[in-house]
Design goal:
The protein contains 13 helices and 14 strands. By secondary structure, the chain is α/β, with parallel strands linked by helices. A 5-stranded parallel beta sheet has the order 9-10-13-8-14, sandwiched between helices. The protein has a 4-stranded antiparallel beta sheet with strand order 2-3-4-5, with no helix packed on it.
């Protein structure tokens, strides 16, 4: 007899065990580079005289394709640089999504942040004092490609969980928690209550740096602690009013496509990006324990602090591909310009602008 426990990721000595598509594990030996597959994984632990066996999780997220998992690590004879994968993602994305020239540079940043989501628990641990996961978004009215943008993010980010807007933090937490540092993709993410007191707004801000949130449970008379860390992608009709979300979010504006694109993306999109996901899984496993977080970008201090904070993720990826260094300064300049515009659209920014205009008129 065995005690079966669902696990989606764990480490056993030199083995990294990660759940992949098909309800199975890939077992990667970090010492030898060897790879095997298994439907379960026995561990030398006993409960009530029964051995513990870890099994892949099969829940609603799997059954209804709410999450997309890679099939298996793809190990080419020669490793491809991150820049090559970045270019392939852009090439494939252009078949499904129109990005205006004005938004292209920020979309490029979003792609690299999505790539970095595969390495979050490689570079950060539970004992890390400070973390950064990234928050990306698209804002605009219907017909601008918001859902399609989310679909692209789901193809290239780590363990993307797709959900329609909800105002309940516990439901979001319970969905994400079994999948570790999963990416949370929220469609129609506009909140009625956009204040900093909103549960979901707090949850989104907390996911950015892994800050725990305590909530008193009247039933159990105990505090429930919600802690979630991972990339978040939001599709919104309008900019949020919370300054924390606005300052953290690297967003593009939705733009109606002037070129013909598929009205509805089908399964071929998922197949189109499969090789990219499999290669990113390979890099994740290969670089486990080798990547060191780059906590300094070396960018000018007058550049956006929030922008520089997020760009540390791309700076960290320079250890895999040194060519990324050429992009970071240009990215930071653009984020600095955008931050001024974005913050002017929050309630605080609107009020400050009105005060400034009033003073200017008086003078």
């Amino acid at each position: 007899d065995f005690v079966k426990i669902n696990k989606t990721f764990f480490i056993d000595n030199s083995n990294i065990i990660e759940q992949v598509a098909g309800s199975k594990y890939v077992i990667y030996d970090t010492k030898t580079g060897e790879m095997n597959f298994a439907e379960y994984y026995p561990v030398p632990k006993v409960v009530n005289g029964k051995q513990i066996i870890y099994k892949p999780l099969v829940n609603e997220s799997i059954k209804y394709s709410q999450i997309i998992l890679p099939d298996a690590p793809w190990m080419p004879e020669t490793d491809y640089p991150i820049i090559y994968i970045f270019d392939k993602i852009k090439e494939k994305a252009s078949k499904y999504l129109y990005i205006s020239p004005e938004e292209e540079i920020v979309f490029n940043i979003q792609i690299l942040i999505a790539i970095s989501s595969w390495f979050l628990d490689v570079i950060f641990t539970d004992t890390s004092i400070e973390k950064v996961a990234g928050l990306i978004g698209i804002v605009g009215t219907a017909g601008g490609g918001k859902k399609r943008w989310l679909s692209i993010v789901r193809q290239v980010a780590y363990r993307p969980l797709y959900v329609l807007n909800t105002s309940r933090m516990p439901s979001l937490f319970r969905m994400v928690e079994p999948w570790g540092s999963a990416t949370l993709c929220i469609d129609e993410a506009d909140q009625r209550d956009t204040s900093s007191e909103s549960e979901v707004v707090q949850f989104l801000n907390a996911r950015f740096d892994g800050t725990p949130i305590a909530r008193y449970n009247a039933t159990t008379r105990r505090n429930d602690v919600f802690r979630s860390f991972g990339l978040t992608a939001l599709a919104l009709r309008r900019m949020p009013q919370d300054e924390g979300v606005v300052s953290r979010m690297i967003k593009i504006n939705a733009t109606p496509s002037p070129v013909e694109l598929p009205e509805v993306a089908d399964e071929s999109m998922t197949a189109d990006f499969a090789e990219i996901r499999n290669y990113l899984l390979y890099l994740r496993l290969k670089w486990w324990g080798k990547l060191k977080f780059a906590n300094k970008t070396g960018l000018p201090v007058e550049h956006s602090w929030r922008g520089r904070e997020t760009l540390t993720l791309i700076k960290t990826l320079e250890q895999i591909d040194t060519k990324l260094e050429d992009l970071i300064f240009k990215f930071s300049e653009e984020l600095t310009k955008r931050e001024v515009i974005n913050l002017s659209q929050t309630w605080d920014g609107v009020i400050l602008n009105e005060i400034y205009n009033f003073i200017s008129d008086e003078n």
